[in-house]
Amino acid sequence: KAGVTQTPRYLIKTRGQQVTLSCSPISGHRSVSWYQQTPGQGLQFLFEYFSETQRNKGNFPGRFSGRQFSNSRSEMNVSTLELGDSALYLCASSLMGTGPNSPLHFGNGTRLTVT
Amino acid sequence: QKEVEQNSGPLSVPEGAIASLNCTYSDRGSQSFFWYRQYSGKSPELIMSIYSNGDKEDGRFTAQLNKASQYVSLLIRDSQPSDSATYLCAVNIGDMRFGAGTRLTVKP
């Protein structure tokens, strides 16, 4: 069974631009969560989608948004990029959402650099 | 208070020793707990999950949960250099929250 696939793997953008990241979950998984990972802050929760609905949202500004399609694939968008948005963005899928007994399976991440 | 707290380390142990990693969490309603391992430049991978008080063993790994003390730990027996990585504690509070991770180095 294929794992979680994230594209692109690397991205370089300029301040003020916007970016869209893509995530394809493990087949059959209906929940997709997004995390930002930086050396100083660790893994920070962005949001979780389940059956095309945003179920949970972390403490990030509105510049960060996402969506999930009917095939469970998800996209994350960051508008008006800032230098501080440079990070590894990780997508994780789970079978039934982040309820009990439902671990996350991570993709390889997208490394975003904002210059 | 952070939702999930871990000692950032680094923790260094000799090969063959027991490595002990600790984690505390703030939400008393948390029901499920996970340990992930992350090698440098890689994404986190699941090592163990635990849902009930007590110990859960899987090979060289033992997870321990004490809900009264809001404490989760991971023991790695017979540590190997290949165990050198950052270990992340994760707690399900409705969504999954992670600690900052403990960097473990196992010296040959």
Mean pLDDT across every amino acid position of chain B: 94
Q: Considering DSSP H and I runs of 4 or more, what fraction of the residues of chain B is helical?
A: under 10%
Mean pLDDT of chain A: 93
Q: Treating each run of at least 4 consecutive H or I residues as one helix, how many helices of chain B?
A: 0
Structural class of chain A: mainly beta
Runs of chain B in which pLDDT lies below 50 for 5 or more consecutive residues are: none
Multimeric state: heterodimer
Number of E-type strands of chain A:
11
Q: Cα-atom Rg of chain B, whole angstroms?
A: 13 Å
What overall geometry of chain B do the principal axes of the alpha carbons give? globular
The sequence of SSEs of chain A as H and E is: EEEEEEEEEEE
Summarize the structure in words.
The complex is a heterodimer of chains A (115) and B (108). Chain A has strands at 5-7, 10-13, 19-24, 31-38, 42-50, 53-57, 64-68, 74-78, 87-94, 105-106, 110-114. Chain A is mostly beta strands. In chain A, the strands form 2 sheets. In chain A, strands 2, 4, 5, 6, 9, 10 and 11 form a 7-stranded mixed sheet that branches. Chain B has 108 residues and is mainly beta. Chain B is built from no helices and 11 strands. The chains are: A mainly beta (115), B mainly beta (108).
